[in-house]
Each structure stands twice: as structure tokens, then as C-alpha cells.
Known about the structure:
148 residues; seven-stranded mixed beta sheet; 34% strand; mainly beta; glutathione-dependent formaldehyde- activating enzyme (gfa)
Amino acid sequence: MTSIPGGCQCGAIRYAMHVPRVEKPHVCHCRMCQRATGGLFAALAGCAKSKLEWTKGQPAFFASSNLARRGFCRDCGTPLTFAYDAPEARIYVAIGSMDDPELAGIEIQYGLEARIGWVKFCEDVPGEVTGDSPAAQEFFAGMVSNQG
């Protein structure tokens, strides 16, 4: 099995994804991801929760909503992970925290309703509006944001 390593900028937190390749590398333009990263979007790549190992240190977590938690380094502030609370849900690492971000070419964009108008990149990558399907609308219907 391949291990894909990464970590925070100060080195206090390190991880390894024990997978042959990352799953569903994407960017999310939603306002929650913008605020969580302090950037124009979040760039994330995932794996099964059981395939992510913390090899040095442990991240702190913030419940950004009643549905999901975001991991970060409490020492340097690097955003590290995003995961919905459902046991079967994937965990996503920040692509910029991977030692080799080239391994995570973007395949889809989410949260297009909040995409900043002057952000021009990945124009040929397909995208979705948050809550565009009935299943997504049902999932997000009870979401309560914990962001200030």
C-alpha cells in the first residue's frame, strides 16, 4: 500500500494516507470553506477515515457546523482536514498540506454559488452548486453553522 504523507507548516502535525491514490480531489468555493481556510476556496483530497494515520502529533478540531469538523494545527494554525461526522464519510486533507500536492489534481468543484467572480482557474473542471439535488437539500436542511 502506498503512503501519501503531509503535515502542517511548523512540523508539529504529520499524517500519512495509506491509499494507492487520493480520492475525489476537489475545490470547494462555499462560504464555510472560504472562512475556514481564510482563502478563496478549500482544496481537499480524501480517503476513508480508517486510512488516515496521524504519524506525529494530533490536530485540534473545530466543529464548523453540527455536521462536520475541521482539523488544524493548534501551534501554527495550518488547516489540515475536513470531515462530515457520519462514520462512513471520507476525511479530506488540505491539498496544500500534502508533501506532494501534484498527486491531487482537481476533479470537481463544489459550492459554485459562492465562487468569487474574479477567480479564474480550472475553468474546464465540472462543478456543482451546494444543495442542487434533493438528497443534498435533505442533508443540508438541518445544518447549523458554528462559524461566527
